[in-house]
Amino acid sequence: MNLKDIGEFGLITRLAENCIFNKNEVLVGIGDDTAVLPFDQDNHLLVSCDMLIEKMHFLREMSSPFQIGYKSVAVNFSDIAAMGGWPTSILISIGIPKSISFEYIDEIYKGMKNICQKYSVNIIGGDTVASPDGIVINVTVLGKVKKTNLHLRSHAKVGDVVFTTGTLGNSAAGLQIIKNIQLDIPLKIKDYLLQKHLSPEPCLEDIRILNKIGLGLNALNDISDGLASEAWEIADASQIGIELYRDKIPISEETQILGQILKTSPLDWALYGGEDFQLIGTIDKTQFPFYAEEFKKEKGTVLFEIGRTIDIPGVFLINNEEKVYLNKSGFDHFG
To answer: Cβ(136)–Cβ(53) under 8 Å?
Structure first.
């Protein structure tokens, strides 16, 4: 059997077997956005890592080194936000081709330091090695979460409202611009969507506000592989089903216009594109109106209600009277 047959998530499932040899030192292992470890009386320690590889996650000719550095850290901060926490430190390991200039690597680190300064996160170590082909960046992030604010994918309850924190499909639309760079696309649309793809912003401010509002926030995940894939992760972990309302999935005007230009459905970008790094989660339906009101009051943006949890396993797209079963498709490194 080759890796394409089993897929990325099948590989992870297999590798995750028999990994915990000291249960006293881990609360949550492989299977959520971060591991959760004991820390102190009030907090848990969160740990995760993410790798970016040239030609797979970024193209040097389409991204500035600052953007590459910024994004490599942002995607890790997003995992911490998806657990209800806040990042505290990172370690950076980087593989560098010998032909790369010092000035280029210095700009990558400027991007990393910029986002770390923005969120008061320390860079505390890492490793540097020579790479035979392309830049490789691996960031390990440490964070803390109050025990009362820990939100796992497995925390959804039947009858919850399913929500997201922002518009979806923007990053996939930005990638399409890179792939179709010769197209005549209005500059305002191009700049907006490329920014969303090349310099995503983690939802740390969003989770700070949601945690402050009160009780009722249950499951959380971040949208790294696409809405459909992340909804499935919550559904599987919580052993429930999810209905997503087609007409309530938020898609920006810029993404809709690009879809018209490319004659492509922007809904596909939202469901399967990935790298939007918005939060998807569930909130007790009796508490959602209060959450939505307080969220808009504090952040000035909408908390989008996009579906509900049900007691029938699976993830479904509701379009008027039609109910369509959604596959678990999302970005798969070996698919």
So the answer is: yes
